[in-house]
Specification:
1973 residues, mainly alpha
């Protein structure tokens, strides 16, 4: 039985794993209870069971398994971490639960699966269930199907992916098991409920009987759209809100949901693609050309059968499409035409988007074939063109459609209009922007006036559809001139139209607000992603934005303006009456007179034609007054201007009258509703007067006013034609001048470039130079807007003229077009948003480019030319390509129709002759420029093949391909490239070149886009495979592109896409995603009104969403979510990428000033640390090379992109050295203002500068060195410390430059090396310079040797690394160098050492050849610096010694402390000799000898006085052989004269300068043998002084107060470590005693003394053997005598008693029972409790090791030692329980019981509780727990050997925590890694995070935080484990009410259990202990 009940004591988790089923059952039951109690889903309790949950469900005992399943279900439902167990648990459920006979088990299993789905783990669950379908056990299959069915029924088809289920359905229907088939039928019905008919095609292959049964079931299903009944956790809140809304507003969600749910699954997606190209008949292409129509028919029928497959695999269908197109276009047999059209329909339906690239070829042919009258042909063609439309966008085929609209054949016109109407139905307000609508409406408006009624009807239908889709507001401007009858007809048609997208679009139109239709509501899933880009960006509300677009030119780059800025230009966007353009009928003179007389005074009209000019003048004045007072609505503008034009009209001779007249015209135009009719009356006169000297300005003013009223494009055209129809050159030149100015004021939008250019050409040919000059000025202004393409029109001008034009263009280069100031107010305040969301920031120039005259070249692309390009002979192919290049060159700008050229060129892209490939690429580049944005339609058939060329093995071919792709992308934007699967297909190819180039290109382009098509997600799986590519470059590029993919797709989607990866890959990729998430840039913001400078009104083609605040649009801050408040000044682009994002759409980018305003370095938190980690973890290349390879440069570029401004980076990595100079100049300017940024990017800056060292250009090198000098000066001022990484990736390359032939460069490098010693220890510099001496460059060797000499001279021998001996031996080798300069340098360096250390040098050098030795001796003699006598030597050595010792301290300490000591040194030398400091700017070049002597002269007596005394005191030091152990093991070689050393140091200790004294003391305690001599009394006084100094409040008022405290702190540490350990311990105990006795002493003082004692305790394990224990115990005895325990307890602080116990405990632990032998010096041991205390401790530790007691006690040290007899105890306890029972004393009683339990932890109070009631028992327990919490909550003081976590941090001087422990010479100090390890253990134990190890508190925290000692060694870790084991057992027996205490304490716990594993641990523990000792 004993064995049976053993498990009862085990903790729950161990029970759950027990081999006994009863134990497991009990464990599961308890676990279930625990799970139900835990309220917090993130409680750490959950994690304990993480690994066990699988065992819960897979238990071999069926009964136990049921309980396990219940517990697992509760766990999954409530635990935050449950998701981690998904895979293993669900696979366990599938394999071990679904095969159980018990229904309950299966139900629970299914519930668990569903619960996992609810906690967002649907994919993993589904994967396991689908695996289960392959099981051989039909039970499992049935259960899996049932689970899937339930999941689908509850969660819906959004969560459960149907495609994989539908794939396996046919197999399930074939199963032999009826149960499986039935279950399959049920799930098929469920799937049908969600996706309806989309399920039919995949199930066509199943048994017809089964299909029939299914059909019957399907019919019974309700028709309404199903809704999920259960939601994921993340959706549950949302669902609650929806329900509230529903209850409030009935159908709150109805509509929206349908749109979302129903078309979500598309049958097409569920089908397998079929490959048909290989199945075409072999002779197909011959047959299709055959003469006999029957053969052609056979060929077509074969194709028809193949294309009936509903889903076709992508491939190259170009030839097949070409053949079918030929049949449609050319075949005379109409039956075959219909058949070919059917084949095309099949292809389009089967390929969907993949057919898009062929659409452009086929559409014109089909449309033209509509001339056929036969209905079956027409129907086939209609079906074909409708299917093709769904594969592309209206935008792409608009050119072809519009071209056919002008056809004379009425049927073609009719069918085209009908096709347009059908196409419009598939559009939404966003996919049918105005730029597209405008040309279509213009063409359709012609058709509504057609003579053929069917053409008119079709046009009405198309216009009606457009009206329905985008709403009246958008269409009305185009229908301004349509009469009412026709308008009504259009509206009538509009009402009849049924849109594919339901009513939503129309609704939006009625609300006059374009809300995008929910993205998914797409026609049969195909058009859904037609223009996702537009849908995804929210539309601004009405009237919120002022589009700067003038109605003349289309705002989008896509299409040329059909109306070229004339016609209806002025029609849009005016308020009130002006919504329709004010087109006035011309009024007769009579009517005008009547209207005018109604508003003007009668006299005024009579005097208009008076012959007296004064009367006319008076009349004008009245006229003006009347106009000024008139109301806009009442002003008859036409009548008034006619009055003004009345005789004498514009022939007025008096200039005053004329001026008035012109002024009145301007007034009327400004104040009235001025129409073009009115304008035409006056313009002629104005142009006539524009050249007039006196009236010219008034005429210009009037013209400007008219331009504002009637739009500049129209006015300008009128004015220009009038001016050039005159002969007056003055008028012509002034008109041109006015126009130049007007363009600047109004912007360029809508101007008719063609008309201008012809006029400008006329002007350029004029004989009058003024006209020519004005024309050139006008061209300059146009250049601002149009860009370089303008020059093409004037290339044939005379060279002289051309050079003038070029000069003008040059002037304009780099300028921004000014923002339009006129012409916006009236038209744009009321303007609706152009509805234009655009794709990418286009270059605004494109608007203008659209207006350029384009040539049609399709007729030149003859079939001969095409066959030439495809010829077998490469020379002929080349000829063909040359011809094409010639055609394009000649045409300059071409129309998009280029016939067969694309197919011909595509063939050449994979030509075997690489030269031809490059030539083709060049042609394609030309083509992009020539065709402009219209090249969009060729992206799929020509653009994607260019991307394929990026995979070429030749570098130059790839470069050419990249340039071509960029040229295309510049014209097309990125949307076309990213749509569809083409790009992902390219990325799929496993070609490393292709992958790295393509990813590089995407990484460059994606950050500039504001949105991308959804198809981008298709690239992600391939991106992931690139992350693990064999090729390093591919991996690198993939990592670089990752953040930009995430920027558009979001982390969630990207993480979801990892689902299909292998587990190992998945983890790696997820880690990379996390990293990328941190670096993810913000999306480029929409150009906001505030910052974008709309190019002369050519308006950015997109508007910021109305909701986004303006500041947000410019906040490109580094945070992934830009916070508008953080974006300080407008437009400060802090993330380099956003610079492009914000660019205004204009050819000339926003220029310098605005672009470069922000900081040049962006501070990325932890950026530098991350880079260092990456380099250490070999994630990036280590910066180590002989010459920089491209990958290093690329890597640096990438690293810089996140923290250096984009424009600066462009300069830094420019190919031209002048840009490098510019970059350096900028960096110098920003050095002071951006200190933080510079330090944050320092590693990158230094790396970039190393690249500059490899440049050949001297000016860059000089500039770089200049910058470095300033940089290191700044760093030393900032007290910065170079990291190892920065040093190792910079210093070796700097040293290369020390060997430059140019003297000036060498000097600079040496100066930089000198400055570096202030920010990087000289001792670490030394090896780098030593490495430089191995160079082949003799100059470099010589300079490096000289530099070594300087280092030794300045910093003493300690800089010589690894040891002075080795270093000097290496230097001595160079004495025999071939080069004289090197020999000299080596000799000089050794002489320098000799001057410092005398003959010791020869010992260190070792043996030299005779020749070398003689040279050296000779040189030493010549240097004549041999020291003559000791005193002299002492003076000479003084500075040396100071320096060398201080450099020792430097070596000991890393980080700030090291920095500080060098600062102190500087401060000292500066104060000593201010003149020197001013004279020589570099602090470290001071003449230390001079200064030191100076110091001596200032206090001349002081050293003498002290010297006498000290010689006596320190006499004993000289008797033994002085073994002076300082930092360097070779230091003893140098200290030949101890006395001089001591004298010198003491002189400094007595210095009046506090820093000097501290420095000297530090040096004194550096020399260990000296430090050991300090007696207890001296140490006591010293420590007293130092601690008092640290606590002195006045120090903080000093300027360098903090530094003083820090250095004192450091000194204290040194004293503790280096002094004689007995003396210092003794001194500290006495000091503590005194401080506690002294009433005046501050508690802070005692606290610091105790901290010092704790530090000593920490050193005890290493120093115990060197300590005189008897003395220490005597001191403790005296202390305890003065302070008995009672007295200590009365102290305010509990620290003294803790400190004492900790000290004793540690001594006991280290010495064991022997400690009692060391009480010899104590006379009367009974005077204090010391002996009793030690005995208790020994007994306690014996108890522990012998495992005799079974109770845990955390205060072993405070255990009471009275041995009470049992009877006594019982009486005592009875007394206590009496008290608890009485009302008054209950609290007192509980307190006593608690105290008692504390004292006698093994006392048994069980008998007293047994007899009492359950209530009383729980009351007592609860009361004890409360007391425990009250007392223990205040912090327990566990007795231990270590130092608390805080203490661990504060006591160790910060420097030792930074890496390697130099200075670990005498083996008494362990390296910091050991402490770090301990600290980690401690931190873990205290539940602290171990990640941020570097954030140590500063040294000063030593003064502030009282810290509590706790465990600090790994042995203790084991003890703690033991105690935890015991505790968990005791918890079960409820014997110890104390057991839920946390176990941060390291006290030993006792146990009487003899469990094997504990004993085993014990033995291991003993072994570890003994090995430690």
């Amino acid at each position: 039985m004993g064995d049976d009940s053993e498990w009862l004591k085990l903790p729950v988790d161990q029970k759950c794993e027990h081999k006994l089923w009863k134990a497991r059952l009990s464990g599961y039951e308890e676990a279930l209870k625990i799970f139900q109690k835990i309220k917090d889903e993130k409680s750490p309790e959950w994690s304990k069971f993480l690994g066990l949950i699988k065992k819960f469900v897979t238990d071999s005992n069926a009964v136990v398994q049921l309980k396990g399943l219940e517990a697992a279900l509760v766990y999954v439902e409530n635990a935050h971490v449950a998701g981690k167990t998904t895979g293993e648990v669900v696979s366990g459920v599938v394999s071990k639960v679904f095969n159980q006979p018990k229904a309950k088990a299966k139900e629970l299993g299914i519930e668990i699966c569903l619960m996992y789905i609810e906690i967002e783990k649907g994919e993993a669950v589904q994967e396991e269930l689908l695996k289960g379908l392959d099981s051989k056990n039909p039970k499992i299959i049935v259960a899996c199907i049932e689970t899937l069915r339930k999941a689908l029924s509850e969660f819906g088809s959004k969560i459960i992916l149907l495609k994989p289920i539908i794939k396996v359905l046919p197999k399930l229907f074939e199963s032999r098991e009826k149960a499986v088939r039935d279950e399959a039928k049920l799930i098929a019905v469920e799937i049908y409920r969600w996706i309806r008919d989309a399920l039919r095609p995949p199930l066509q292959s199943i048994n017809s009987v089964q299909l029939k049964e299914l059909e019957e079931e399907w019919v019974k299903l309700p028709t309404g759209a199903p809704k999920p009944s259960r939601f994921l956790r993340s959706q549950q809140e949302l669902e609650a809100k929806l329900e509230q809304q529903q209850s409030a507003g009935g159908e709150a969600e109805g509509g929206g949901d349908d749109g979302d749910e129903v078309p979500q699954i598309d049958a097409y997606e569920l089908l397998e693609a079929v490959e048909i190209l290989s199945k075409l008949p072999k002779d197909f292409y011959d047959k299709i050309e055959a003469k006999k129509w029957q053969e052609r028919k056979e060929a077509l029928e074969a194709v028809e059968v193949l294309v009936k497959n509903p889903k076709l695999e992508a491939g190259d269908y170009a030839d097949l499409v070409k053949a079918l197109k030929k049949v449609v276009g050319k075949d005379t047999n109409v039956m075959l035409v219909a058949l070919a059209a059917k084949c095309l329909t099949g292809l389009a339906v089967g390929l969907r988007k993949k057919f898009g690239q062929y659409a452009g070829h086929v559409v014109p042919t089909i449309l033209e074939k509509f001339k056929e009258k036969k209905p079956q042909v027409v129907q086939a063609l209609q079906e074909a063109i409708d299917a093709i439309f769904l594969t592309t966008t209206l935008q792409n085929i608009s050119e072809d459609v519009l071209a056919v609209m002008d056809n004379k054949n009425p049927t073609i016109k009719q069918q085209t209009s009908l096709f347009i109407a059908r196409s419009f139905r598939h559009c939404t307000a966003s996919t049918l922007p105005k730029s597209l609508l405008k040309p279509f409406c213009a063409a359709l408006l012609k058709h509504i006036n057609d003579s053929a009624p069917e053409v008119r009807d079709a046009a009405f239908e198309a216009l009606g559809t457009a009206l329905k889709v985008v709403g009246e507001k958008a269409v009305n401007p185009f229908l301004a001139d349509v009469d009412k009858l026709k308008l009504d007809k259009i509206k009538e048609c509009s009402e009849k139209v049924e849109l594919v997208h339901g009513k939503k679009a129309g609704l939006a139109a009625d609300k006059k607000e374009f809300k995008p239709v929910p993205g998914r509501a797409a026609a049969s899933g195909a058009t859904g992603d037609k223009d996702t880009k537009d849908i995804s960006a929210p539309k601004p509300g009405p009237l919120k934005k002022a589009p700067a677009t003038k109605p003349g030119g289309p705002p989008k780059k896509g299409k040329p303006a059909a109306l070229g800025g004339t016609g209806s230009t002025g029609t849009k966007n005016k308020k009130g009456l002006e919504t329709k353009e004010t087109v006035e009928p011309e009024l007769s003179v009579k009517v005008c007179e009547e209207k005018a007389s109604a508003v003007l005074p009668a006299t005024c009209i009579q005097l208009l034609d008076s012959s007296n000019w004064k009367e006319r003048l008076a009349c004008m004045e009245e006229f003006q007054k009347a106009v000024e007072l008139m109301d806009r609505t009442e002003m008859p503008c036409q009548a008034l201007v006619r009055m003004l034009a009345k005789k004498p009209g514009w022939k007025e001779t008096n200039f005053q009258v004329m001026q008035m007249k012109l002024h009145i015209v301007a007034l009327i135009a400004q104040k009235g509703n001025f129409s073009k009719t009115s304008a035409q009356i006056v313009l002629d006169g104005l142009v006539d007067k524009i050249g007039d000297v006196k009236c010219g300005n008034n005429a210009k003013e009037a013209m400007t006013a008219i331009a504002e009223a009637c739009m500049l494009p129209w006015t300008a055209e009128q004015v220009m034609s009038m001016a050039f129809s005159q002969k007056n050159p003055k008028n012509q030149s002034e008109t041109l001048n006015w126009l130049s100015n007007a363009i600047k004021e109004f912007g360029f939008s809508g101007l008719n470039v063609k008309a201008f250019i012809s006029n400008v050409k006329t002007a350029l040919a004029a004989t009058n130079p003024a006209v020519r000059t004005s024309a050139i000025t006008l061209l300059g202004v146009m250049y601002l807007y149009v860009g370089p393409s303008l020059r093409m029109f004037f290339e044939d001008e005379k060279p002289a003229l051309l050079s003038q034009i070029d000069a003008e263009f040059e002037k304009m280069q780099g300028q921004n077009p000014p923002a339009p100031t006129r012409g916006i107010s009236k038209h744009s305040t009321s303007a609706t948003d152009e509805g234009e969301d655009g794709d990418e920031p286009d270059d605004g120039g494109n608007d203008v480019v659209d207006l350029l005259p384009r040539t049609e070249i399709s007729d030149k692309i003859t079939s001969d030319l095409v066959s030439k390009i495809g010829d077998k002979n490469w020379k002929i192919r080349k000829e063909g390509l040359d011809e094409v290049a010639g055609i394009i060159n000649e045409a300059k700008f071409i129309q998009p129709n280029i016939g067969e050229l694309p197919t011909a060129l595509k063939g050449r892209l994979n030509d075997s002759n690489k030269i031809l490939v490059q030539q083709t690429l060049n042609i394609l580049q030309q083509l992009a420029v020539a065709m402009g944005p219209n090249i969009k339609q060729h992206v799929k058939n020509l653009g994607i093949p260019i991307i394929t060329v990026l995979g070429d093995s030749k570098n130059n071919v790839r470069a050419a391909a990249l340039a071509t792709v960029n040229a295309w992308a510049e014209q097309t934007g990125m949307k076309e490239w990213l749509e569809g699967e083409d790009l992902s297909e390219e990325l799929k190819k496993e070609n490393p070149f292709l992958r790295q180039e393509l990813l590089g290109w995407l990484a460059e382009k994606l950050p500039t886009l504001r949105s991308t098509p959804t198809d981008l997600i298709l690239c992600v799986p391939h991106l992931y495979s690139c992350l693990e590519d064999r090729n390093g470059d591919v991996r690198k590029k993939a990592q670089d592109a990752l953040p930009f993919f995430m920027m558009h797709l979001g982390y969630e989607k990207m993480a979801k896409a990892t689902g299909k990866l292998k587990p190992t890959s998945k983890d790696q990729v997820l880690a990379m995603l996390e990293k990328a998430k941190a670096n993810m840039p913000a999306k480029p913001a929409a150009p906001a009104k505030a910052t974008s400078k709309p190019v002369g009104g050519s308006a950015p083609a997109k508007f910021q969403p109305a909701s986004a605040p303006v500041e947000d649009s410019v906040s490109g801050t580094v945070e992934p979510k830009p916070d508008p408040k953080k974006a300080k000044a407008l437009g400060v682009s802090s993330k380099a990428k956003t610079a492009q994002g914000k660019k205004v759409p204009s050819k000339t980018s926003l220029k310098e000033d605005e672009d470069k305003s922000g900081p040049i370095f962006i501070v990325v938190p932890n950026g530098k640390e991350q880079r260092t980690k990456d380099e250490k973890g070999l994630k990036v290349l280590k910066w180590n090379f002989t010459t920089p390879r491209d990958e290093y440069i690329e890597q640096l570029k990438t690293q810089m992109s996140s923290c250096v401004a984009k424009w600066l980076q462009d300069e830094m990595f420019h190919s031209d050295f002048q840009h490098h100079n510019k970059a350096l100049a900028v960096m110098v300017d920003h050095l002071e203002s951006e200190k933080e940024g510079v330090i944050g990017c320092l590693d990158l800056i230094l790396k970039w500068l190393t690249l500059r060292f490899f440049d050949t250009n001297t000016s860059v090198l000089m500039k770089a060195l200049e910058y470095l000098k300033l940089l290191f000066t700044l760093l030393s001022e900032e007290e910065y410390h170079l990291t190892e990484n920065e040093a190792s990736s910079f210093i070796p390359y700097l040293i290369l430059k020390v060997g430059e032939p140019k003297d000036v460069i060498r000097k600079d490098v040496r100066a930089i090396l000198n400055r570096m010693c202030l920010v990087y220890p000289a001792s670490k510099m030394f090896p780098f310079i030593m490495e430089g001496t191995k160079s082949k460059n003799s100059k470099q060797r010589a300079e490096c040797l000289e530099e070594l000499g300087c280092l030794v001279e300045s910093y003493g021998m300690n800089v010589c690394q690894p040891t002075p001996g080795k270093a000097l031996k290496e230097i001595a080798i160079h004495i025999g160098d071939r080069d004289n300069a090197v020999r000299n340098a080596a000799l000089n360096t050794i002489v320098t050492v000799y001057n410092v250390h005398g003959d010791q040098v020869f010992k260190l050098i070792g043996t030299l050849s005779e020749k070398d030795m003689s040279m050296l001796e000779e040189r030493i003699k010549r240097s004549a610096k041999r020291p003559s006598a000791a005193p002299v030597k002492q003076v000479e050595e003084k500075p040396q010694r100071t320096q060398s010792i201080s450099s020792n301290t430097n070596m000991l300490r890393k980080g700030p402390a090291e920095d500080m000591s060098s600062r102190l040194n500087q401060a000292r030398s500066m104060s000593g000799h201010p003149e020197a400091a001013q004279m020589v700017r570099r602090e470290f070049q001071l003449d230390l000898d001079e200064i030191e002597n100076d110091n001596g002269t200032v206090r001349c007596e002081m050293p003498e006085l002290v010297q006498h005394k000290l010689d006596d005191i320190f006499e004993p030091v000289l008797i033994p052989e002085p073994k002076i152990r300082a930092v360097s093991p070779h230091f003893d070689d140098m200290h030949s004269n101890t006395a001089s050393t001591i004298n010198f140091i003491i002189s400094q200790v007595a210095s009046g300068d506090i820093n000097t004294s501290i420095q000297a003391l530090t040096q004194l305690f550096q020399i260990e043998s000296l430090a050991r001599e300090a007696s207890t009394g001296v140490l006591k006084d010293l420590m007293h002084g130092l601690i008092t100094l640290m606590l002195d409040s006045r120090i903080e008022d000093l300027e360098e107060g903090q530094q003083v405290i820090r250095s004192v702190n450091l000194l204290v540490v040194k004293v503790l470590e280096k002094s004689d350990q007995t003396n210092i311990l003794s001194a500290l105990l006495v000091l503590l005693q005194d401080s506690l006795l002294a009433t005046a002493s501050s508690p802070k003082f005692s606290e610091l003394v105790m901290k010092c004692l704790w530090r000593m305790v920490r050193l005890l394990p290493d120093t115990i053997n060197s300590i005189n224990l008897d003395r220490i115990l005597l001191d403790i005895h005296i202390f305890m005598k003065v302070f008995p325990k009672e007295k200590l307890k009365q102290c305010k602080s509990e620290f003294p008693i803790r400190t004492l116990k900790t000290l004793l405990h540690t001594l006991c632990k280290l010495k064991g029972p022997k400690i009692l032998d060391h009480l010899t010096m104590i006379d009367n041991k009974n005077e204090s409790e010391l002996e009793a205390h030690l005995c208790r401790m020994m007994k306690h530790s014996m108890d522990q090791t012998g495992s005799k007691s079974d109770k845990e006690t955390e205060k072993g040290a405070s255990r009471i030692d009275e041995k009470s007899s049992k009877a006594k105890v019982n009486d005592f306890l009875a007394e206590i329980f009496k008290k608890i029972g009485s009302k008054e004393n209950t609290k007192e009683g509980l307190a006593e019981l608690y105290e008692y339990k504390k004292k006698y932890s093994d006392a048994d109070i069980e008998p007293f509780l047994k007899n009492s009631s359950q209530f009383f028992q729980s009351y007592v327990e609860r009361g004890l727990r409360v007391i425990e919490m009250e007392r223990e909550g205040k912090g327990r003081i566990p007795i231990s050997t270590g130092i608390s976590p805080q203490m661990e941090v504060t006591c160790v001087p910060t420097p030792t925590s930074t890496g390697s422990s130099v200075g670990n010479t005498n083996g008494e100090e362990v390296g910091p890694s050991v402490y770090l390890e301990r600290l980690k253990i401690l931190r873990q134990r205290c539940g602290l995070d171990n990640t941020k190890q570097d954030d140590r508190p500063p040294l000063t925290s030593l003064l502030s935080k009282p810290a509590v000692p706790t465990v600090a060694s790994s042995t203790d870790m084991l003890h703690s484990k033991l105690s935890q084991l015991r505790e968990s057992r005791e918890q079960h027996q409820h014997s110890d009410l104390d057991s839920n205490q946390t176990h941060s304490s390291g006290t030993m716990t006792t146990s009487s259990s003899s469990t094997a594993n504990i004993d085993d641990l014990k033995k291991r523990l003993e072994r570890i202990k003994s090995s430690r000792k």
